[in-house]
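INFO worker-7 received task bundle
INFO bundle size: 2
INFO processing item 0
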Amino acid sequence: MKAEKGNREYSIDGNQQKFYQDRGFDIKNDSGKVIAYGRGKRVPYDEYEKVIAQKKELEEQVEKLKKRLDAVVKKQKSPQGEKAEKGTSTDAGEASKKG
């Protein structure tokens, strides 16, 4: 394991993880993937606001897409949707018999 903060990097074992993490070091496994973030990190407020605004926008898009999906599913399940589909296929079959 490695503890990394800024330009400092230390090789540590599992017993030292909490010590370094409490002091703001990110803990990475041997392959370099972050397994624990250091305590006390902060995000600038303007970045936070951007993320919150994006989250709200995406939630609205999800709701719109759910409504569209529900409408499509409902239309496919309705008896009129089935008749329209059957009528089209029957008409095509009758047209080929007449010709």
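INFO item 0 finished
INFO processing item 1
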Amino acid sequence: MAALYDHAADLVRIIYDRRIDGPPVLNTRTSFPNSGKFIAAWREIRAEALGVAANIRSVPRFHEIMREQADISANDGRDWRMFILKAYGVASPRNMAACPVLASVVAASPDVLSASISFLAPGKRVPSHRGPFRGVLRFYLALSMPLTPDGRPGAVLTVAGREYRLSDGECLLWDDTYPHSVRNDSEEVRIVLLLDIWRRDMPLDMVLFSRMLMTIVRWGIRFRGLT
């Protein structure tokens, strides 16, 4: 199953790479105008995320949700847990109810296809990888960023060879089809909000292709009960 997923992802990347070109990191305000709503509410969203973290063992590891991602989630024995509120348009009513502020902002942002709270254990390394869908962009909002002894943000996101250290309340919008990795160099759990955003200004054929892919992904999510 993992091999089939990898082959399909490679094919999808080739199609997108031939039709859409763009930088690894994009301007948040222009490419995701509703980002301001999430930034304005980040403290309330953090409070909800910390509430989820209080029962962290009930939050599944990423490879328990999607076994095809075991090579980046179960690679080092340290946890990468994902609390999914919405996955490509399929909402989890229970998880939405647990985070009402975040759920309300997501509901008011039609460009948001997926919304998850990511918990990265101390010392966790997520190796370099690429996402398959250039039709979506990844929004990363730091909610609870631990610090290193010298006071720097303890988790490092590397996109296309460049490192980013974000403090609480800071965000980044990037194209996850570029190689990217993350590591938590601190002694505490790193908590961030991850959103998948519909990419604007795509050629018509890629809009149609992306909608077709999203439909197929939604069928898979419902079939496997991932939310």
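INFO item 1 finished
INFO post-check item 1: Residues 204-224 form the longest helix (21 residues).
INFO post-check item 1: The longest strand covers residues 112-120.
INFO worker-7 idle
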